[in-house]
Amino acid sequence: MTGTTPTHVTAQRLQGKTALITGGAQGFGKAIGIKFIAEGARVLVLDIIEPPEEFKGDFSNNITYVRGDVTSLDDWQKALGQALSVYGHLDIVVNNAGVLHKAQPSIELSDEEWERVFRVNATKGLAIEWAPHNIRVNAVCPSVGDTAMMPLFLGHNSSEEAQAKMLSSIPLGRVCQPSDVANTVAFLASDEAAYLTGVCLEVDGGRGI
């Protein structure tokens, strides 16, 4: 056991693979895209917003950006067609896109908010169905992360006291960083995790213990 991060990291674990990442323009998704490229993958990002500056310049050789909405079947087909047209094959899909309603009782949500949450946040119970085809399905379950969604998680009570209370519930004493999720997803997408499917891996600093 150790309290430090290993200094040696296996590089190029995703060499030659092509990945489609939804919601890849910011937060966890952007970090996953950057990590995948560092690991040798070619990446297609599907997101509803403009691409970040990090995806321009040198990164543009290994990334294709498609503006689209994950709740639209047409946009999914457009992204898949682009991946096959540009890269010739698709090996990995990271269904990262997600939405979060404001911290409030569920009975106060409008019908439109409920519909949006359920349409974007896909289920992860496909592992058994696709295992015979050697397609692995795993889920990453992060705790509250240092992303644009944190204010929604905290709701109206975003005081220092509320943040301290939230941190006190995490044994490792910090919120989840995008790099924590990106490193985990890169492992699950690599051949090193070839015998893992149906896993819901908690990346929560021990909060669920």
Give a brief outline of the structure:
By secondary structure, the protein is of the alpha/beta class.
How are the secondary structure elements laid out?
Blueprint: E1 18-22, H1 27-38, E2 42-47, E3 63-67, H2 73-87, E4 92-94, H3 111-120, H4 127-130, E5 139-142, H5 150-154, H6 160-168, H7 178-189, E6 200-203
Parallel strand pairs: 1-2, 1-4, 2-3, 5-6
Helix pairs in contact: 1-7
List keywords for this structure.
about 210 residues, alpha/beta, Rossmann fold, about 30% helix, Alcohol dehydrogenase, oxidoreductase, oxidoreductase activity, SDR_fam, NAD(P)-bd_dom_sf
Overview of the structural elements:
GO terms for molecular function: oxidoreductase activity. Keywords: Oxidoreductase. This is Alcohol dehydrogenase. InterPro entries: NAD(P)-bd_dom_sf, SDR_fam. Belongs to the short-chain dehydrogenases/reductases (SDR) family. The protein is globular. Helix 1 (27-38) packs across helix 7 (178-189). The strands form 2 sheets. A 4-stranded parallel beta sheet has the order 3-2-1-4, with helices on both faces. Strands 5-6 form a two-stranded parallel sheet. Helix 1 (27-38) links the parallel strand 1 (18-22) and strand 2 (42-47). It folds into 2 domains: 13-97, Rossmann fold; 107-208, Rossmann fold, CATH 3.40.50. The longest helix is centred in the middle third of the chain and has 15 residues, at 73-87. By secondary structure, the chain is of the alpha/beta class. It has helices at residues 27-38, 73-87, 111-120, 127-130, 150-154, 160-168, 178-189; strands spanning 18-22, 42-47, 63-67, 92-94, 139-142, 200-203. It is 32% helix and 13% strand. It starts with 17 loop residues before the first strand and ends in a 6-residue tail after the last strand.
